[in-house]
Amino acid sequence: MKVLFVMNPISGAVKKSGIPKLIDQHIDKDRFEYNIRYTERAGHAEIIAREAAEAGIDIVVAVGGDGTINEVGRGLIHTTTALSVIPCGSGNGLARHLSIPVNIKKSISILNKCQIHELDYCTINEHPFFCTCGMGFDAFISQKFASSKRRGPLKYIEEVLREGLNYEPEIYQIEDEGSRHRYQAYLVTCANASQYGNNAYIAPQASMSDGFLDVIIMEPFGFMDAAQVSFDLMNKTLDKSSKVKTFKSKHVVIHRQHPGPVHFDGDPLIMGTDLEVAVIEHGIRVVCNEEAEDASRREPNAIQNAVSELLNDISDVHSSIRHQRRNVMAFNKRLWRRLNK
Q: What confidence tens digit (pLDDT) does each residue in 16-29 have?
């Protein structure tokens, strides 16, 4: 079998100078004949991957982060050439969903086993993505993150903490098969895979082979709710949060009030007010980990569930207290006006 490694020399947080040597040491040379190509500019990986598919290459391996994987994947959709991944990015959302180890030697061993499955991919306004797309706060942070010289989870957390308390939620109208709903939301995410990256599970039950998007609407929340939302995000319990609504759909149309950033697989792009998101079933062949966890194995354990329920209860009590306080203040104002007539 013929394999082409496509390497982005500057993406992510991992130095890549030693990767060619590791590939040569650990790839199954009895099974594979391989070459390596380096990207030279944005979008180049897609061109390389498409040319490889046209040339009959069996597997193209994306060596980089989710952005590089997205480019390579775009060049391979609806071809017989399979996508494989050596994750070297800041978040590695798709690789983590597929249980591809971030250890390079171990990820090469997954390639050597060569278990190929046909998986779903998605589009937002005809732009393909494989992991998640979103609008609202996460797209705003992706835009800030992309323009920063620093990378990695600490930088991401820094941006979230700096901007989160001042971010204004937006109004979204979401249409799916036969229904239309209006939400005030902090963010709206459409997920093909379960996480953003760094094990932040935005859609714990998402599957890349079920033919559905997982749609997540996160309602506005205050400072006191942030701990609960953060815990749920990192512990596979976000779908149980009182601040989150979720549903599955094959196709949604989202209307928002203003144009702005959207992210797909972490890369930001400015789009208009009307956004159409759809799933394309079995549209890409992917080298998978035969021992990968499925959605049923991503269930939180008893302790995680208990802590999530406790934090939700605290959040509900806090919301109730705030509501009662507003009622008392409104009553006091009415009483004061009557006494001063």
A: 889 999 999 999 99
Distance from C-alpha of 139 to C-alpha of 12, rounded to nearest angstrom: 18
Q: Residue 67 burial by CB count (10 A; 0-12/13-18/19+): exposed, middle or buried? A: buried
Task: Work out the burial of residue 61: count CB atoms within 10 Å of its CB; fewer than 13 is exposed, 13-18 middle, 19 or more buried.
Answer: buried
3-state DSSP call for residue 159? helix
Assign residue 119 a region (left: φ > 0; alpha: ψ between -120 and 50; beta: otherwise). Answer: beta
Report the alpha-carbon distance of residue 47 to residue 200 in Å, rounded: 31
- Token pair belonging to 183: 């939400």
Q: Measured at the alpha carbon of residue 160, what is the angle toward residues 236 and 157, in degrees to the nearest 5? A: 70
Q: How far apart are CA 13 and CA 279, in angstroms?
A: 30
Euclidean distance between CA atoms 131 and 15, whole angstroms: 24
Distance CA 173, CA 272 (A): 14
pLDDT bucket at 9, cuts 50 / 70 / 90: confident
- Residue 63 CA to residue 9 CA, distance in Å, equals 9
Which tokens is 305 given?
A: 């569930």
- 278 — phi, psi (to 5°)? -145, 155
Residue pair 263/129 in contact (Cβ under 8 Å)? The answer is no
Q: Which helix (H) or strand (E) holds 50?
A: helix 44-54
Strand partners for 6 = 37, 62
Token pair, residue 206, equals 């998402």
Q: Which one, of 28, 156, 162, 135, lies nearest residue 89 by Cα?
A: 156
Work out whether strand 179-185 and strand 115-124 pair parallel, antiparallel, or are unpaired.
unpaired
Report the distance separating Cα 65 and Cα 288, nearest Å: 17
Under 8 Å between Cβ of 82 and 285: yes
DSSP state, 114?
T
Q: Virtual CA dihedral for 193, 198, 200, 204, nearest 10 degrees?
A: 40
Instruction: Indicate if the pLDDT at residue 296 is higher than 50.
Output: no
